[in-house]
Specification:
The complex is a heterodimer of chains A (259) and B (309). Chain A is an alpha/beta fold. Chain A is built from ten helices and ten strands. Chain A is globular and about 65 Å long. The chains are: A alpha/beta (259), B mainly alpha (309).
Chain lengths: 259, 309
């Protein structure tokens, strides 16, 4: 089943076309890799899908419903979570609080209707609600074995843990679809190895994962299907084996043979 | 002399309310707003006009003053909250000046630069809370501060407080976590303005007259100084900041040096305080309120020792 698809998605910044008529499909239950040289438009595509940017033209459908141009918070509430290329944690909040923010819209408010009163309800919340949120948040911290660090400020965590915390925070929103933007950036081989097993565990939870990554070992190892972008265009898609042999992909990464 | 000290404490209380409001906006959501004076003025005039022209009881005018200020907070908030940093500061600064200009020129309602005099005193069970009997007034003001403090401390500990802080730390990440950032920012503005409106009400029954000259840009700057000096994001610290700034600004009169030190000197001093604080103690005297932790000395939830693997 197709969980998410973009049709002819285009994002132009003035004369620069960052993403050009991209058809991109995410199959439910699979790990989809999105690769391409720097500046190929991978993050722009992520941003346009998750509501941080609005496409110039084209559509995004999620679970059959059009979500093009919806706000980031409503797309998140529909079950699409993400992490960021340059880690965006709430630095001055504790590790636990970071994850609790991910639980924020799950309590007291109806996820679909963001009524006027929802802010008031969040003001009145204490006690039981907070306790439930803590419990849920701790569950996700334990998933990453970060439980012992719950009271640390996020900014004090070592880099690898910060990456994990960001994923934990995204998972706390209980997504069906998780976008990871270069999760292995800056990690050493052991950490990358660990991350691969984590991503597999996330899939085992029934969550569909899409990831942008430059680490080909990771991509080729864990992705079921790969989409390649170059100059904003979708130039190839298929299984890791197919992608490895695809002449267009080789050209995009290594250049043409003659000249 | 004692009277003068009491006066400082009364003004500290009134400004503490405003500073707590500013703290929601600046300390929690991280927006540099410079229009507490505008909300303060709206609250003051609401009480003045309602009680003088329409003969309302002071206690009834307080919620109106607060709500009117809050509504104008929403009014200024909705269009300007797309702005950040310096741009928001300029927009809000403009709003404060617009309020003052309206008060100066809407003669039929505000009586222009003359202002409104003979505001009836506040009464409790038939007892007048006269500004000339400073003890009584002092107690009343500080009860307001206490209630305000409890209110805002609750805010800080609630889910809403955490959402506001998340927005301050990273707005994009917050919205990607399902938080409607616009809505929370507007509410923060409304709450901050509400506090200033109530402070304005108290100011009106303390001075028993209002005029546009009171609500200058300097007031907003003083309030901002209080928050920075005490410690952003810490409501107790902000109250301390309010007292210190009031104490400093009345210091020349207090020690009888007002002939030597001109009143304008305090403006130089505020600027100096801001610079010195930014260099040596940017977090303020007390700094941010300590974060709530899972494993403090206090009781903890049963399943909180998340270390089991």
């Amino acid at each position: 089943m197709i969980l998410l698809e973009t049709k002819q998605l285009t994002r132009a910044y003035g004369g620069v076309i960052a993403v050009s008529k991209v058809d991109f499909e995410v199959e439910q239950g699979l790990i989809t890799g999105l690769i391409g040289p720097n500046g190929a438009g991978k993050t722009t595509l992520f941003n346009n899908i998750t509501g941080l940017d609005v496409p110039t033209s084209g559509t995004v459908h999620y679970k059959g419903k059009e979500i093009t141009g919806k706000s980031a918070h409503s797309i998140c509430r529909m079950g699409v979570a993400r992490t960021f290329q340059n880690i965006r944690l709430f630095k001055e909040l504790t590790v636990l609080e970071n994850v609790m923010v991910g639980r924020h819209f799950k309590v007291g408010t109806s996820p679909t209707k963001g009524r006027f009163g929802s802010v008031l309800k969040s003001f009145i919340s204490l006690g039981n609600e907070e306790f439930e949120m803590k419990k849920e948040a701790l569950h996700w911290l334990d998933f990453f074995e970060l439980g012992e660090l719950s009271d640390e400020l996020a900014k004090n965590l070592p880099y690898g843990h910060q990456r994990e915390l960001e994923i934990a925070r995204a998972l706390a929103t209980e997504p069906s679809l998780l976008f990871l933007d270069e999760p292995a950036a800056g990690m050493n081989p052991q950490e990358t190895e660990h991350l691969m097993s984590t991503i597999r565990r996330i899939r085992a939870l029934g969550i569909t994962v899409v990831l942008i990554e430059h680490d080909m070992k990771l991509v080729m190892n864990i992705c079921d299907t790969i989409t390649v972008l170059n100059y904003g265009q979708n130039i190839a898609q298929g299984t890791p084996k197919e992608i490895k042999r695809n002449p267009l992909v080789i050209e995009a990464y290594l250049g043409k043979e003659d000249e | 002399m004692l009277n003068f000290v009491l006066l400082i404490f009364i003004y500290s209380g009134i400004y503490a309310l405003m500073a707590m409001g500013q703290n929601v906006i600046t300390g929690y959501v991280g927006l540099l707003s410079l229009c507490q004076a505008g909300f303060f003025a709206i609250g003051s005039y609401a009480t003045a006009i309602l009680s003088v022209t329409y003969g309302w009881n002071f206690w009834l005018t307080i919620p109106i003053a607060g709500v009117l200020a809050a509504l104008s907070g929403v009014l200024i908030g909705l269009p300007t909250l797309r702005l950040k940093g310096d741009y928001l500061a300029i927009a809000t600064l403009g709003f404060g000046e617009i309020v003052r200009n309206i008060l100066n020129n809407w003669d039929s309602l505000t009586r222009g630069p003359m202002g409104i005099q003979r505001i009836p005193m506040a009464t409790v069970f038939g007892l007048k809370i006269s500004p000339y009997e400073k003890w009584g007034f002092l107690v009343m003001v500080w009860i307001f501060v206490l209630v305000g403090y409890l209110f805002f401390r609750h805010l800080a500990r609630s889910r809403m407080g955490r959402a506001l802080e998340a927005i301050r730390e990273d707005e994009i990440a917050a919205s990607s976590m399902g938080i409607n950032t616009t809505k929370y920012k507007v509410w923060a503005f409304a709450l901050g303005a509400f506090a200033a409106g109530v402070a304005g009400s108290l100011q009106a029954v303390f001075t028993l007259s209002v005029s546009p000259g009171t609500f200058t840009f300097m007031v907003s700057i003083m309030v901002l100084c209080m928050v920075v000096l005490g410690g952003m994001g810490n409501f107790l610290a902000v109250i301390l900041g309010a007292f210190l700034i009031q104490f400093i600004s009345y210091f020349p009169q207090l020690v009888g040096l007002s002939n030597i030190i001109p009143p304008q000197f305090k403006q130089v001093l505020f600027g100096l305080i801001l610079v010195v604080m930014m260099i040596w103690r940017p977090q303020g005297i007390l700094g941010r309120a300590p974060r709530m932790t899972l494993n403090p000395k206090k009781k903890q939830p049963k399943d909180s020792d998340g270390g089991e693997k």
